[in-house]
Amino acid sequence: MILAAAVLAFAFVFSLNAQTVAAEKYVWRNVAIGGGGFVTGIITHPHQKDLFYARTDIGGAYRWDPASRKWVPLLDWVGADENNLMGVESIALDPADARFVYIAAGTYSRTNAAILRSDDQGKAFKRTDVPFRMGGNELGRFNGERLAVDPYDGEIIYFGSRRDGLWKSSDRGANWENVKSFPVIDTTESSSSVIRSNAWSRGRFDFAPQSVGIVFVQFDAQSGSPGKPTPVVYVGVSTAQTNFYCSRDGGATWQAVAGQPIGLRPNHLAVATDGNFYLTYGREPGPNTMTDGAVWKFIPTNNSWTDITPLKSPDGGQVFGYGAVAVDAQDPLTITVATFARWKPHDEIFRSTNGGTHWTPLLQNAKWDFAAAPYTATRTPHWMGDIEINPLDRDQLFFTTGYGIWCCTNITAADSGRPTKWVFLDNGLEETVPLALISPPEGAHLLSGLGDIDGFRHDDLDVSPLGGTFPGPRFSNTEDLAFAGRHPETMIRVGSDNGGVRVAISSDGGKNWTALAGEPPYTAGSGTVTISSDGKIIVWTPRRGAPYFTTDCGVTWTACAGLSTGVRVTADALNPARFYAYDARAGKVLVSADGATNFSATEAAFLPAPGAFPGRGGPTLCATPGLEGDLWLASRVDGLFHSTNGGITFTHLPSVEEAGSLGLGKAAAGEKFPALFLAGKIAGQHAIFRSDDCGQTWTRINDDQHQFGSISRMTGDPRIYGRVYFGTDGRGIIYGDVADKVGK
What we know:
Elements: E1 7-14, E2 20-30, E3 39-44, E4 52-56, E5 61-65, E6 70-73, E7 88-94, E8 97-105, E9 114-118, E10 126-129, E11 147-149, E12 157-160, E13 166-169, E14 177-178, E15 214-219, E16 233-237, E17 244-247, E18 255-256, E19 265-271, E20 277-282, E21 293-299, E22 304-307, E23 321-327, E24 335-340, E25 349-352, E26 360-361, E27 367-369, E28 387-389, E29 397-401, E30 404-408, E31 421-424, E32 434-438, E33 446-450, E34 455-458, E35 477-483, E36 491-496, E37 503-506, E38 514-515, E39 528-531, E40 538-541, E41 548-550, E42 558-559, E43 569-571, E44 579-583, E45 588-592, E46 600-601, E47 620-623, E48 631-635, E49 639-643, E50 651-653, E51 656-665, E52 675-682, E53 685-691, E54 698-700, E55 711-716, E56 724-728, E57 733-738
Parallel strand pairs: 27-31
Antiparallel strand pairs: 1-2, 1-54, 2-57, 3-4, 4-5, 5-6, 7-8, 8-9, 9-10, 11-12, 12-13, 13-14, 15-16, 16-17, 17-18, 19-20, 20-21, 21-22, 23-24, 24-25, 25-26, 28-29, 29-30, 30-31, 32-33, 33-34, 35-36, 36-37, 37-38, 39-40, 40-41, 41-42, 43-44, 44-45, 45-46, 47-48, 48-49, 49-50, 51-52, 52-53, ...
């Protein structure tokens, strides 16, 4: 089990008139993969043993639980309407009181943001919606920390924003005011430098100009005393011009720090116990690229600067920058820094025990333990966004990557030339973006397609797959999966690949995969795929292309007549000649009775409005397992529709106001029709629901504390009644079971 503890969620049954008539309990857990996304920062409490927090760009925030040795998710209460809060811009702790934690939450600067404040280490939060914008998944998202608590007066908190300058709270984050005296407001980047990572979280790239703005705020603890606000505060700004500012009067006035280096952008600052500062720089804010960088030492007492960069860029033709720095709290002369975007041979961590005069590389002879997440064995550490030394255990060091957290517990071994040992510390931290999920009636209970890390066959839901990702053709993203309704061991998948065929087939339930012989013409991207119930006909709709079918595993391809570009095709669960499609632009259901050769529109009425959410995120059509011609059409705008005659007519279910995602699973005892699972809106409430009577009544199966942000790719398990799987927009794959059936 991946979550720190099983979660019991109360459920309510809604009839057509929305009256509550029953209750039920569910247990929710993560399907174990381990990591999978960019952990942008680790925050350690300076005095409380083993109190660590992690922030991610789209997957929320976590607290380390030393008793269970797992990361505990803190933002699962965020619902689909406020999914933007799942991207964490910054985290701050009160150095004087370990109870308090503050989270700056906002994935993209175009929508809502909030400061979340807790006095019980994140078990519960109070919220303040703020006017300043955040970008937890934008440029410079690993920079920081932008949020800082005064070490001597916990009422005072500063936040450095991207576009709106510096902000201050004097009441523990409940209210905020702009620090108008701070000289820098905005440092907007041109769109040419912006390509957003984790694009699959929204299904598109965002080329809008982005501002990185203020990247860190640092109180100078040596300037203050208990019971009084700290007078000296430093602020760093992501610009290659003047970028480092200081206030000596509690933020009333600000001056540029004299002698500071220019030409590169600061991204991290670490302060040693002797009062010296260490800063890392990059030419770009990252993370997509960084072509130069440096490490500088600043001594405030005499205002001197020294370049202590361990390795200059370029190195053997490989350009790179520096992305993180940490200082040993027990030895002010021991420093670690990490390169950034040094792809060849790999990023490196350098360690110095004499204040940066001499450096030792740590990873050249490192020993890696991949057991916790075997898929990581095929990856080298990249996007080292943060590096931290445990303030109470100088042998323990963490660094973050684009796919998780690595931890070393013998870092001082490097001082005597011995190798360092590293483990992947992501138990409980799940940040994948699922793009496809299937649960066949035999073999493994679940197969997944994921953004950035291909996909998995999950033989054990609670253990990261021992064989790693899919064997055979390696896709950077597996975007769609399907199995043959009458021969479920035959499966098909489509994904992104550099130069190779983007569709692969398996005849053994996903244990092994073989690329198809070829692709149709004018293929512009991976797209969607389906397979006939007998496993003999494959239909592929390439992204921005029209559907094609093959009957000889890709040797030849034929265009499907009657279908326009971008239309997803669904195979009938039993009849191998029948295929279905929904054209969102036209608002029409189209049917083929000749093996996908020709499609024609039915006269079905009561369908989603034409043009409503075409493409990714639009209405989806699925076939009911075990029944010929039984179809469901789910729309985020118009709700849920059901056909029992192969799409000739549809019935609109009036109780369902919105149907974001739909899945089908094993029927309840005494029922013939499969259980329905819905992420949508019923009786004015967004939630996860189950229906055991073909959609006549619905049971809510989650509670307000367990909403998991945005939910998609839902499917039930055909062998376990009540079990549902779904993908999230950064919290990985979640599965739920009826509470009284767990362990039986």
